[in-house]
Amino acid sequence: MVKVLVDHGADVNAGDSQFDATPAGGAIEYLRELGGFLGIELSDLAFAIETPQVAWVRRFLERFPAMRPASDTQGRPFKQLAEQSGSAEILELFQLS
Question: So where are the chain's domains?
Fold first, then answer.
């Protein structure tokens, strides 16, 4: 359906009048409601946990709380990475509800 709309001139980067949100952003937000995230988001959270960068982990989890029970692109649960990080602060972020 998206291809048909684009083939007929739909602008996939046009912002709406209320939030300036794009159709692609709407699709991504819908997928996030279903537990889907971009690969780069998953990889960046894993990196922040492993390095360990508490402020960035906190920022990710505040923006995307549904990432707590998720796994990275290699199937490693984020909570497991937090346990292995050696950072009590990061581990605590994954124990919050």
Answer: 38-97
